[in-house]
Design a protein that fits this description.
BirA Bifunctional Protein, domain 2, about 25% strand, Translation Initiation Factor IF3, alpha+beta, 23 strands, Rossmann fold
């Protein structure tokens, strides 16, 4: 498609500015009066609601219950798990006054809620009969970031955080991996984004975790975006908070814990993975408006009558449809809804009505179809699946084309300059991991579950290689 929307910077001219333009022009968000805190406008929030609805149903299907815990955490409670404190201390926002009085125990605005959940679990878990506990909350968190970008990195963001307790390590690890699969399915079936799945290195894992698993998406500028994580905590937090239960053999035992979460960072992934020089391109299953109806020559009564008929029966079929009967020209409307990424446009004009047809245009590639009136609903449903598949396959091809084995330090640099993942054979030594970051400002994204070694030696030091690791520059 040619670039028609002059209000949006072209991707090849300035990708970062293109991203900001789309966020603002498509009315996904606005900046607030506090740096790093954004306003989620209705269109942007509606995308998050659709993600939330999909995941909430999946969580509940596997037995997760929703709860809500306080916004603030006493500093004394937050400090109970030392690795956790070290990991989050630089990012915390702390309240030191309550009204006119200084607080004896300052309150931290939650950057995450492991400590609150553990404090609660210590009170309610007494026996193996109380397990498992599988709770999730939808909320916002605050992490005082120095550099922010809408949806990708903010001082406050929306997310869900699951926190569970199990009798055994085996059950807990199984839970962490099961939730990772749910996130991966969301990418495949809802967002049309292929993820790389794997385990984080020791350096990159979550503060206080034994193991961290992640889904990583690749952006069109060649940078990776961590899009979700699940964590196996072992019994470290449970011991720090004195959580014990009477086991099946009448002995006191310590439960094993997991945590998992995705955030509004997924909106950033959708924008970047699928967007083009005209703005957003939204996958049909997550789009707030799936079909927009544009009347042509709407001053003619028969045009508006037919447009309303289409609107009513598409809406009755459960499709998220909008009829734009404003006084803007059809050309303005075409451009506006292209920018907003609406998957399908249904055009209704006098000639179409007299011929008993409608015109349907796909946003992802601009292809148009002339459809009989009686077939509009079935064709819309068919095209949703076609569009989703095309969008996923396009992103998957890009991922494959930008995942490259690195066989030398020089080649590693070339891969990063081109953009994408470098598959690296690694000895497991953190010094080698640090060396890659020092040389190329790239980090280990994950060690893929599907390990296919292609060399015996570590690319960096030449010692025996232990793992295949995906390195990339990242957001």
């Amino acid at each position: 498609m040619t670039n028609k929307n002059e209000s949006i910077t072209r991707q090849e001219d300035d990708f970062a500015q293109w991203y900001t333009d789309v966020c603002l022009k498509a009315e996904l968000m606005d900046y607030s009066s506090v740096k790093g805190f954004i306003i989620y406008r209705p269109y942007g929030y509606a995308i998050w609601e659709n993600i939330q609805k999909y995941l909430d149903e999946k969580f509940k299907y596997v037995g997760v219950e929703n709860v809500y815990l306080p916004l603030v955490i006493p500093t004394s409670l937050f400090q109970k798990e030392k690795d956790h404190v070290v990991g989050f201390a630089p990012e915390t926002l702390v309240a030191t006054k309550g009204g006119k009085n200084d607080l004896d125990d300052p309150l931290i605005v939650r950057p995450t809620s492991e400590t609150l959940f553990c404090d609660h679990y210590a009170k309610i878990i007494k026996s193996y009969r109380d397990l498992p506990k599988r709770y999730n909350q939808w909320c916002s968190v605050v992490r005082w970031e120095k550099t922010t970008r809408p949806f990708l990195r903010g001082s406050e963001f929306l997310w869900q955080e699951g926190h569970t307790m199990y009798e055994t390590a085996e059950e807990a690890r199984k839970d962490a991996l099961r939730m990772l699969e749910i996130y991966d399915a969301a990418g495949r079936d809802l967002l049309a984004i292929p993820f790389v799945k794997g385990i984080k290195t020791e350096k990159e894992k979550f503060a206080g975790a034994v193991e961290t698993y992640s889904i990583e998406a690749l952006m069109p500028d060649g940078k990776a975006l961590q899009s979700g994580t699940t964590h196996y905590f072992g019994d470290g937090f449970a011991k720090a908070f004195g959580i014990q239960f009477l086991g099946r053999d009448n002995k006191l035992e310590t439960p094993h814990q997991t945590s998992w979460g995705v955030s509004t960072r997924l909106l950033g992934a959708i924008i970047m993975v699928h967007g083009d020089d005209n703005g957003l391109v939204l996958p049909p299953h997550v789009a707030p408006i799936q079909v927009v109806i544009i009347p042509v020559q709407q001053n003619k009564p028969e045009v508006m009558k037919k447009a309303r008929e289409y609107y009513e029966f598409l809406k009755a079929a459960g499709i998220r449809v909008k009829l734009d009967d404003s006084d803007h020209t059809p050309g303005w409307k075409y451009s506006e809804y292209e920018m907003k990424g609406v998957p399908l446009r249904l055009e209704v004009g006098p000639r179409d009505i007299s011929n008993g047809v409608a015109v349907i245009a796909k946003r992802n590639d601009g292809e148009k179809f002339i459809v009989k009136e009686a077939d509009v609903l079935s064709e819309v449903s068919r095209l949703f699946e076609v569009i989703h598949k095309e969008m996923y396959q396009k992103a998957f091809r890009y991922l494959l084309d930008h995942t490259t084995e690195a066989h030398s330090i020089e080649e590693l640099g070339q891969i990063f300059d081109r953009g994408g993942y470098a598959k690296v054979m690694w000895c497991g030594d953190q010094e080698c991991e640090n060396k890659v970051k020092e040389l190329y400002q790239a980090t280990a994204r994950c060690m893929p579950f599907d390990q296919n070694p292609f060399d015996e030696k570590c690319l960096i030091c030449g010692k025996k290689a232990e793992k295949v690791v995906f390195f990339a520059r990242a957001y």
